[in-house]
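Appendix C reproduces, verbatim, an entry submitted by the partner laboratory led by Prof. M.T., so that reviewers can inspect both the input and the predicted structure.
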Amino acid sequence: MKKQDKSISLRQSEIASQFVSELDKHLDELVSGQVETAYEINEFADLLFINPNHLSDTIKEVLGKSPCAVYEEKLVLISKDLIVNTNKPISEIARILDYDPSNFTKFFKRFTGKTPKEFRNENHSG
């Protein structure tokens, strides 16, 4: 948890914790193929029975970043793991994570400075 200049309520902490928990669960389901489409922020808000704006404001307050930023950071970590530790084609990794392959390459490069192929070539041990 990030900021302490404003006091964060127990409820705000609970919402942030529940969001991260649901996000992790959803990403596990996405990677394992149990679901095929990535959730939107409003779908997480529905799971937590709160307004999407309230969810965004609370996550920003507690974690110091937007729900989308939290989501993207986790997607980058998962992407790196799949690129380095599997032999799946980049296009399949993109599909698993609910991306069009060209958009996935742009997304990945924006966060890492490298294309998925460059990242794999530099980090793949097999």
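Residues 10-32 form the longest helix (23 residues). Additional entries are available on request from the coordinating office.
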